[in-house]
Design goal:
Immunoglobulin-like; Ig-like_fold; rod-shaped; about 20% helix; five-stranded mixed beta sheet; alpha+beta; 3 domains; disordered C terminus; about 290 residues; 4 helices
Length: about 290
């Protein structure tokens, strides 16, 4: 009958873009009746890596093996990246007479399930992809409080160092908030706190130190400085007032034309009197000029 498989040559701590391997050995039963199959898991969930696994199998023998059974040695290779973090591999012995299909997991009873599983893989990689932000993102005034936040990818997790550009001797105390390194500045001062702030993230992978940095600029206004949106608001209001004045003039002209067209005698008389007075005034001005 088939036997519980054993694992060897297992690698569980590798650098990104390296290969991990594992070798599974077991008696699978009569010739052509059994085989070894592989499954992959990540954080306890089954994942399909069939297109990424390179599998090789050979038949081996040991002293005392039954000549009617086959001992198979099956090796798997996987090129890992950071997305493979916590991947584990399991090999199962399946046999058409005993275990025709492999169970979903190898955690219930390995001796019954005829399986063996590796520990989760730790993938290490240099620090990269740094981002520096601040809260709040709105305009800053003297006396305000602002929190600078820095995050970078890397395994082992990066360590962070903060400095103010041009004032590197200034101590900036930082704390970790989840995966973010944060620095909080209170009672902002335009002269002392305006400028560029540098966040450096670093880690060590296989005895080599890696580092990356990001910069964020702080612009701090005096408390009496008007808000940047004031000019835009005034312009909008002025435009509306001009439009309303033009519309009012057009309405007056339209009313005069309607009065003439409708033969409104009172209104027409007022219009005519205005025209006569305007003509007399013009004549008087011309006469005095001569």
């Amino acid at each position: 009958p088939p036997t519980v498989p054993t694992l060897s040559n297992v690698q569980t701590d590798v650098q990104e873009n390296s290969n991990i391997t594992a070798t599974c050995t077991a008696i699978v039963g009569y010739p052509n009746a059994g085989q070894i199959v592989w499954k992959a898991y990540q954080n306890g969930q089954s994942v399909d890596l069939s297109s990424e696994l390179l599998i090789t199998a050979v038949n081996v023998s040991q002293p005392g093996d039954d000549q009617c059974t086959v001992r198979t040695q099956n090796s798997v290779t996987l090129k890992v990246n950071r997305l493979h973090q916590n991947i584990s591999l399991a090999c199962f012995v399946i046999n058409q007479d005993f275990n025709p299909t492999a169970p979903e997991t190898c955690t219930t009873d390995p001796e019954t399930d005829l399986c063996a599983q590796t520990d989760p893989v730790t993938v290490t990689y240099p620090v990269s992809s740094i981002s520096v932000t601040r809260e709040p993102a709105s305009t800053l005034y003297e006396g305000n409080t602002v929190t600078l936040k820095c995050q970078a990818e890397g395994n082992p997790l990066p360590t962070y160092t903060w400095t103010k550009v041009g004032d590197e001797n200034r101590t900036l105390a930082s704390v970790m908030d989840g995966l973010y390194s944060t620095v909080t500045l209170t009672s902002l001062n335009k002269t002392l706190d305006s400028g560029d702030y540098n966040c450096t993230a670093s880690n060590v992978v296989e005895n080599v130190k890696y580092a990356t940095f990001g910069v964020i600029a702080l612009v701090i206004y005096e408390a009496t400085t008007p808000a940047p949106t004031t000019t835009t608001t005034i312009t909008t209001i002025t435009t509306e007032q001009t439009y309303r004045s033009t519309a009012s003039t057009e309405i007056n002209v339209a009313e005069n034309i309607n009065a003439v067209n409708n033969c409104d005698s009172n209104t027409v008389s007022k219009i005519a009197m205005g025209v006569i007075l305007s003509s007399i005034l013009m004549y008087s001005l011309l006469s005095s000029s001569f």
